Amino acid sequence: MTYENALKNIHSLLTFGSRPGLDRMKTLLDRLGNPQDKLKYIHVAGTNGKGSVCAMLSSALVAAGFKTGLFISPYITDFRERIQINNASVSKEVLADAVEKTFPIVLELRESGVVITEFEYVNALEFYIHANERCDIVVLETGMGGLLDCTNVIKPPLCSVITTIGLDHTAVLGDTVEKIAAQKCGIIKPGSIAVTSAQCGEVMKVIERTTGRLGVPLVKSESAKLEVISQSLRGNELKYKSKSFNLALAGDHQIENAKTALAAIEALCRSGLISVSVDDVAEGFENAENPARLELLSEKPIVLLDGAHNPNGIEALKKAVQKFLPNQKIICVAGMLADKDIDSSIDLLNGIFDSVYTVPVNNPRAVSPKELAEKFTKACGSVVCFDSAEAAFDAALKKAGEENSAVLICGSLYLAGEIRPYAIRALEKI
């Protein structure tokens, strides 16, 4: 099977949507020989920060010599980013071979009435590939929620990590932060360690009740002592014990993410489950990459790419813009999905941009550029609709050169994935 055919088979399952529940996943994995039971995990759930925390954890473990698997979603530019080993995407050959061996089982199950979704199958591929490659540890990011997320078929992990929780996917997870937190806390299991980022009071109460009921030790990110030396759009210069290093992920929220990852590492080291040195942490965090998270694509002109798509993420983006680009004219290229809290996000961005260019996003859940433009008119006086993200970026780049403005692309990780390769090529021509 070719890689292209493998991708066609995977994406043919997209029509079956995302459906919470573990029974289908358990049935599929049982047919595959339960590869998930052959691996050790750090399981990560949360509303924002999951990808960055996963990137730091994986990178530090690799620096410490562990053969490390990584499962993330969504990908930005290449599907294989979702399944990595030692911070490198699995090869096309490995993925194609895995699909060739496992996809017939998906078709057989469908014939018997068990319909596997795309996310479930990709997660099963991850288990299958990482088990075959004999990874020492897998850093496993949940898709949506936690309790009923298909990644939650694993046995108790080495550690469960809960990153910042806010309102998102409310139609599925609940309409309050407490309900959402209860779903996220579903990954916490007896016989493990729990680690949490700083949370609002209501969320922290849910986490503390859950760990108390299960008898699971809880470690808070505040226990990790990181010194901030300096900050810029290039990243955060940090010091951990005797080592200084640059975390190439900008913004105050990334300092909190770094503390969360570090708290998990320290807790696992104290328990004797892993051995990671100060040098490993410094090297790992310095090498950690997570594209489209306040990513600086260019300094002249300043071009930033950010995938923030819910009020929590937009708030972090807003704070970073105000901190690093005070009094700077900013052109925003924005595209969003209709099932997100668009109104709250736009309210947060009120007055931040001088111009907004709304664009389509190649996703069936996307809001139209025209509708998004109408919503943005209350937050910005100059709003223009574009038929493509590429045309909007070209126009923004031209205007930035003429007016000494910065360009910020934001609103969706799907938009970020679409525009990133084009933006990089366009900037190389300047």
Structure description:
It is a single chain. This protein is α/β, with parallel strands linked by helices and 430 residues long. It contains 15 helices and 17 strands. The chain has helices at 3-11, 23-31, 50-63, 92-111, 118-132, 170-173, 177-184, 201-214, 252-270, 278-287, 311-324, 342-348, 369-376, 389-403, 413-428, and strands spanning 41-45, 68-71, 83-85, 88-89, 137-141, 159-162, 193-196, 218-220, 227-232, 235-240, 243-247, 295-299, 302-305, 330-334, 355-358, 383-385, 406-410. The chain has an 8-stranded mixed sheet, with helices on both faces. Strands 12-13-17-14-15-16 form a 6-stranded mixed sheet. Strands 9-10-11 form a 3-stranded antiparallel sheet, with helices on one face. The longest helix is centred in the N-terminal third of the chain and has 20 residues, at 92-111. The chain is globular, with a radius of gyration of 21 Å. The model has no long low-confidence stretch (mean pLDDT 94).
Unreliable residue runs: none
Radius of gyration: 21 Å
Largest β sheet strand count, sense and barrel closure: 8 strands, mixed
Strand order of the largest sheet: 4-3-2-5-1-6-7-8
Structural class, judged by helices and strands? alpha/beta
Q: Quick check: average pLDDT?
A: 94
**Number of helical elements:** 15
Quaternary assembly: single chain
| Global outline | globular
Query: What is the terminal separation in angstroms?
Result: 41 Å
Q: How much helical structure, as a percent, in the residues?
A: 40-55%
The total count of strands amounts to 17
Q: What portion of the residues fall into strands of 2 or more residues?
A: 15-25%
